[in-house]
Design brief:
Length: 241
């Protein structure tokens, strides 16, 4: 595989479409994993959180447990890339999610604020506060309505892995501007979409990515969807936070 290709992000659909209730899976896991070994997303009917790590795709279920996804499982929204080899950065205890993001943001400012960045942290988490989204049935409601029923979970004093992306503000709607992160335990048995966390120690892998490929769904639900950007920023931030 050419280095240029390895530095690309492959994305299924847009977060704007997901926020509006387009939950129809359009790409299966077998195909997704040909485009990257690290990433995140969700599944058809938002039936669980997706985390891709070390070339494997995992589904976090409604009870917070995780299982390896079937190759035939599909996703309506996912973002993956190849995690490039680089010198890891060792992190000491970070008292809050804001303190850790300050470290990441400092690196972003040095490298360039308008690129996308992949983040992976392997470490000991004092706590990781996660959520999943209950599986939906048609007619699908907008994500802001679905999240009223979201189950949340707390993992305390656990070894695990954070995988996420930092997306620039000018790409809001394509993805979520800022940080979007998922978590999975070291035994790959639990996790979810990260709402809050505190890191005791860890190893950071942080990479700048210059190329984005978006695979838009071809189904009528997406092609006919109302994706007008009214209140888009507020809707997406409600979905992610």
């Amino acid at each position: 595989m050419e280095m240029g290709e390895r530095q690309a992000i492959y994305q299924v659909s847009t977060l704007q479409a997901l926020a509006r209730g387009n939950y129809y899976g359009s790409t299966d896991m077998e195909t997704l994993l040909t485009h990257g070994d690290t990433g995140l997303g969700t599944f058809h009917a938002v039936g669980g959180e997706l985390i891709v790590i070390d070339g494997h795709a995992y589904r976090v279920l409604g009870d917070g447990s995780a299982v390896e996804a079937a190759t035939s499982d599909t996703t309506p929204f996912a973002t993956v890339t190849w995690l490039r080899e680089q010198v890891p950065v060792r992190l000491k205890r970070q008292p809050s999610i804001e303190a850790l993001k300050d470290i990441l943001t400092e690196q972003v400012r040095e490298l360039g604020i308008n690129d996308v960045y992949i983040v992976r942290i392997d470490g000991h988490f004092r706590h990781a506060h996660t959520r999943t989204v209950p599986r939906q049935t048609p007619p699908y409601r907008a994500m802001t309505d679905v999240l009223d029923d979201q189950p949340v979970f707390r993992f305390n004093q656990r070894e695990g892995v954070l995988v996420g992306f930092r997306t620039p503000q000018h790409m809001q709607g394509i993805n979520v501007a800022g940080y979007h992160e998922h978590f999975i335990t070291d035994d790959r048995k639990g996790g979810g979409h990260l709402l809050d966390y505190q890191l005791d120690s860890g190893v950071l892998t942080f990479g700048e990515i210059h190329k984005l490929m978006i695979d838009l769904p071809a189904d009528s639900a997406f092609l006919q969807a109302d994706l007008h950007p009214d209140n888009l920023d507020a809707a997406i931030r409600a979905v992610e936070n």
